[in-house]
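chain below, 324 aa
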Amino acid sequence: MIISRTPVRVSFCGGGTDIDSFSLSEPRGGRVVSLALDRHIHVTVNRRFDDKVRLSYSKMELVDDFEDLEHELAREAMRMTGVTSGVEITTIADIPSRGTGLGSSSAVTVGLLNALYAYAGRETSAEQLAREACEIEIDILEQPIGRQDQYASAYGGINSIRFDTEGVSVDSITLLENSIGRISDEFTLVFTGMSRSASDVLSEAPEDESDKMARLRAIRGQADQAYDLLASGDISALGSLIGEAWYAKRGISASVSGGELDALHDRIMSMGANGAKLLGAGGGGFFLVHGSPSLREELANLGVPHRLIPLDIDWTGSEIIHNG
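prediction:
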């Protein structure tokens, strides 16, 4: 049995500039500053007695031919790795695997590739896993998403990720000694209780394309600022910056937010937050919130369904945790 473990991601600044329509047309390309969160997608691959394929996720599929799988990511990962028969595959998520704004779908793709390659006895790199996950999701399945999620999940840690005509480059950010603890203590993920597919949000045309591009350029500049603040250890200023990033992002599309989300954002800020932004494409998922360590106790008063997650970092990226 093979078991892979792959983290989801949290983006501080730059989300949206990783989409090809922006990053390949702008002279400076796109840039995202993000971290891999200590919450995971586990994928198991085990040999079957027969040649059928059994896939278990939120539903169960048993097929004679992998081409008949409804789960597109699994089907294309099997095709890419050459493991196409006689296996049982299971995906298990620490958090909901869709609509959270944490890049869960891409983490599934990376984890599937890693586990299937290990099953086939082939070594892979983080770069290969991320690149091939992008190929599956963007080039083959034509999903209107960016390239940050795949690289954050594959590499792990806290990174500056650049996207341009030369490709994708990942640079690990070296933090000051006390910054790791402060990130965990001062940043909290707050579940909105709502979810929406990133592809649905991103496929909707903006009302003003030129305004969207201007906002994305501003968001690209915020990623530069986020890198400098993390490198210098100014965590409080980073918390304020994510609040600015929220307002820039919110104007891109009406689907990014809405009445309930705006009300929750205002309530979070009234509790003493320094800054808050909705993660991912919008429409639901998690708010990333910054404030003093005591703020988390206040946020707990939000109650159901607003579950809280501290911002703990996964440093390893996608890895094989069992091979035997």
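The radius of gyration is 19 Å. The first strand starts at residue 2 and ends at 13.
thats it, cya
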